[in-house]
Design a protein that fits this description.
This protein is of the alpha/beta class. The protein is built from 13 helices and 13 strands. Helix content is about 35%, strand content about 20%.
């Protein structure tokens, strides 16, 4: 599903007409968030966001795992497995499982640390604790079933909080004030944080940016490229290609977590060839593309991105405190 455009604009007729439903939705979500959750056998770090859709949770989860592993810890990712058929709890096996089983994000995360997928986050945490000493929960900030020792909310500086209304009138998963009470730190990705975020979090705000893999960036610099993605904000990926110096001559955006078919993959390759361009996609999209056409994997370029955080030492200190 792709978020409607009116969510990111000043509230108009459609947003106002949906406001009564948004108030009910937001009220229910806020009431759930106050419930006490299960305390896992090891620390739980939640990476979430205030709005529906992608904001950069996965890059932050990977960054946390990198920091924790450098300190000698054994992080385990806990994911709902969005887009997969398995309810879990199950330990992800990259050989045995595909995106139809566990979703695309777990198959990306498992390259860096063990991953448990579970619709029941509490049950998933119990399994995850058997495979490591700290849990990084990718999404689930509004889920009350599991106690969080540390919660970090990600904000895409380009979209912010949208019109600051709850679903379906706007993108908020619950009223912002109710969500902010549960957040220890906020990470703004891509630029200056929106005013509401800056006022709310002040000294508890990190600035961050997505950095393309330097080797791939050099390979694509000056080249004609065709961007293909199935993510929440395809324009972010497309902007990254332009910023690294590639010539964006074509693009194709699919819905978030789109299950690619072989025919669609072939069409993308054909469109890129017609434009004499290099087809380029994201790491998460590549997981789904390979699943539908493994013999085509070497015909599309992948642009990995990693998160660079300002004042990373402060974040490291906060992570260390979880184990003291």
């Amino acid at each position: 599903m792709r978020a409607p455009d009116f969510w990111w604009e000043k509230p108009g007729f459609l947003a106002r007409s949906l406001a009564p439903l948004a108030k009910i939705y937001g009220g229910v979500a806020a009431s759930r968030m106050v419930k006490a959750g299960l305390k896992a056998p090891c620390p739980v770090i939640c990476v979430g966001n205030f709005v529906a859709g992608g904001a950069g949770k996965t890059p932050l989860a990977l960054k946390l795992a990198e920091i924790l592993k450098a300190e000698g810890h054994r992080p385990v990712f806990l994911s709902r497995g969005h887009g997969g058929a398995l309810k879990g709890p199950v330990l992800v096996d990259s050989v045995r499982h595909g995106p139809d089983d566990v979703g695309d994000e777990p198959l990306l995360l498992v390259r860096f640390a063990p991953v448990v997928i579970a619709r029941d986050r509490a049950a998933g945490a119990l399994l995850a604790a058997k495979h490591g000493d700290v849990i990084i929960m990718d999404d689930g900030m509004q889920n009350p079933s599991l106690f969080k020792d540390l919660t970090l909310a990600v904000v895409d500086s380009g979209q912010g909080l949208g019109n600051e209304l709850c679903i379906p009138a706007g993108p908020l998963r619950a009223p912002f004030a109710d969500q902010a009470e549960k957040v220890d730190f906020c990470v703004s990705i891509g630029g200056l944080a929106p005013e509401t975020i800056k006022k709310t979090f002040a000294e508890r705000l990190f600035q961050a940016r997505l950095v393309p893999d330097p080797t791939i960036a050099e390979l694509l610099r000056g080249e004609r490229v065709f961007a293909v993605s199935g993510i929440g904000r395809p324009q972010k990926f497309e902007a990254s290609l332009v910023e690294l110096g590639a010539k964006l001559v074509g693009k194709r955006a699919f819905p978030d977590h789109h299950p690619f078919s072989r025919a669609e993959f072939d069409q993308v390759l054909a469109d890129a060839a017609r434009l004499k361009a290099i087809p380029v996609t994201t790491e998460k999209d590549f997981v789904r593309m390979v699943a539908c056409a493994p013999d085509r994997a070497d015909r599309i370029e992948v642009l990995p991105v990693r998160l660079a955080i300002s004042d990373e030492n402060q974040l490291k200190k906060r992570l260390k405190s979880l184990f003291s």
